[in-house]
Amino acid sequence: MELIPLLMFLAVGVVLLSGYPVAFCLGGVALIFGIGGLLTGQFALSELTFLPGRLFGIIENTSLMAVPLFVFMGVMLEKSRVAERLLASMGRLLAVFPGGLGLAIVLVGTLLAASTGIVGATVVTMGLLSLPTMLRHGYSPRLATGLICATGTLGQIIPPSIALVLLGDVLSTAYQEAQLRQGNWSLDTVSVGDLFVGALIPGLILVGLYLLYVLVISSLRPDMAPAMKREDARVDGVPEDASLISGLVAPLLLIVAVLGSILWGYATPTEAAGVGAFGSLLLAAINHQLDRHILRETVRGTTRVTAMVFMILIGASLFSLVFRAFGGDETVAHLFDALPGGTLGAILVVMLIVFLLGFILDFMEITFVVVPIVGPVLLAMGVDPVWLGVMIALNLQTSFLTPPFGFALFYLRGVTPPEVPTAHIYKGVIPFILIQLIMLGILALFPQLATWLPGLLYG
User: What pLDDT, on the 0 to 100 scale, is given for residue 104?
Assistant: First the structure.
């Protein structure tokens, strides 16, 4: 009986490698094991009666309303050409310094992450706009492609982030389960807003490490990141008068409106997402990029992503229900108890599993399959939920860069000139994966980086 939950987990991993849609992989494996358990008398059909309640819980979850709103904001900002103006402005300002364009890409990527939170849009936009310029002026293809991929993944950890919204919702449920297991009926909560605030300082430190890496490389190997003439940093299609102020003001105002309203307690993440969605419409109108076609494409893209997220949630709910019916949570708890090192050993194993799964699975699959299984056990062992959430988010960020299925690599490969081989892209991201792992180690040694600011604001 104890082997069945482990076999379920392995079966999901194998089926996901087939490329079949994630939601149907999760739901299908759960139904197959449920039917098998029903035929062998190890599974009761009454267990499935809890599924409608879970589905209604997903639909009625106000935290998840932030998902379509943040997606709408990101897609609309992609259409409003904010990235082009930012790159043009930053490029002209920093191009005269060695590694200046690389620094500009990190800073622009940070602002885009804080205003859109969509990895694919950031990577593709910066790849189309900046990669040809970097290659034309002597930047190393490995450094250029690695920098664009890594910077694009900042949308995973810098709020507002779709990953943090989903992770916050999963951890909230896991934290409540952990407290109930301990007999605590006066439940504390962890919210999406807590994760947003907790991820802010680690995310900015990670940006600082990226900037430091570019500065070191440009100092030791100036041939890899040479200085440019300011006029050469022009982005095609952007007016020459795109100044730094005009390029920065709009996204900064949106960031302040969204994040500021959360940090100072004026709005929940869902309400702030509504502000962001409305603000993206205003920016598109100001940039003369708002018409029926753009609005239709934005709504279509938002609907597609939202439908995918909620279908995965439904499949994951069914999988979790069957997994627990077979005693999966007790099996995981026994495995963690048997590990040497206690809580520290359990955390190390979970982080290693999440990192290795990132080579073959997407962050959303890991969030909905792994975190609901290991989260309640770790939190019942006394792990801080905000720190754990930020650690997992940082770890999941590597899944976009680790071959063979790193989605940031796929996004960039689709817009990279043919003369840049795929091997250069894969090799280029290795230093940035190491930097992300270093940041993970720093956060493990200094948990206060994630817990201090939420405690200060909400404690």
Answer: 85
